[in-house]
Amino acid sequence: MIKGIIFDLDGVLVSTDELHYQAWKKLAMDLGIMGFTKEDNARQKGVSRMDSLEIVLEKGNKRYSDEEKLTFADQKNNFYIELLQRLTDDAVLAGVKETLIMLRKKGLLIGIGSVSKNTPLILEKTGLKSYIDQISCGLDISKSKPDPEVFLVAAKKLGLLPVQCLVIEDSKAGIIAAKAANMRSLGVGPEYEQLGADYKYKNLQCEIDWDSILNS
Ligand code: B16
Ligand code: MG
């Protein structure tokens, strides 16, 4: 029986993809990399900041030291944080608040499992913080999805066993991580059918058969 739901953040609860894209695009242009596209940005979904940087740099033809790469990642993040200042609850995806309220009413615990180190800021800006019981994010972990660490930390913080948790994700890396954590998974988002999740729904606005999922 499921007792806790662990939500991915970017692409599941909030739409920050466009802001990530703008920030990476600016960095790419600053570095003289012209070919960074939205398709490349789609590959950064659920991927850590440093791995996302590699996806940008592979579009150019220069090699950089680890120190330079850390500086570039900081530059992107500073610009991304600037963009996040303008975030409001408009960025909360359709059906999210209703789903969180309904699940809490059913007595479920709500956790976040996101590799983003900006999770606290995003939850604050979008007003979602008060719906969440525990946060596991990039600040708590050393290994990114597809490693299960972020979800295992979330389950631990919620005081639940992995088998008592359901992960909701929009990325392949996240679904692989959920399976590795021995948790069931529900895939949403533009690629929901291809993620390999146990349950597949386009978004949280759909008629989700919660009773059979939660009692399985
Ligand atoms: P940050 P999620 C992920 O969040 C994003 O999908 C991914 O695009 C981003 O690179 C990563 O967070 C790190 O984010 O640079 O803010 O620490 O999908 O796991 O909620
Ligand atoms: Mg995501």
From TrEMBL:
Quote the record's binding site residues for Mg(2+): D8, D10, E169, D170
What GO terms describe the biological role, i.e. biological process, of this protein? carbohydrate metabolic process
Keywords assigned by UniProt?
A: Carbohydrate metabolism, Isomerase, Magnesium, Metal-binding, Phosphoprotein
Per its UniProt record, the required cofactor names are:
Mg(2+)
UniProt: substrate binding residues: D8, L9, D10, W24, S52, K76, S114, V115, S116, K117, N118, K145
Q: Where is the active site?
A: D8, D10
Which reaction is recorded as catalysed by this protein? beta-D-glucose 1-phosphate = beta-D-glucose 6-phosphate
GO MF entries: beta-phosphoglucomutase activity; magnesium ion binding
Does the record's keyword annotation contain Isomerase?
Answer: yes
Q: Can you tell me which residues the record assigns to a coiled coil?
A: none
- List the EC numbers from the record: 5.4.2.6
Important for catalytic activity and assists the phosphoryl transfer reaction to Asp8 by balancing charge and orienting the reacting groups, annotated site positions? S114, K145
Cofactor binding mode and count: Binds 2 magnesium ions per subunit.
Identify its protein family.
Belongs to the HAD-like hydrolase superfamily. CbbY/CbbZ/Gph/YieH family.
Q: Any idea what this protein is called? A: Beta-phosphoglucomutase
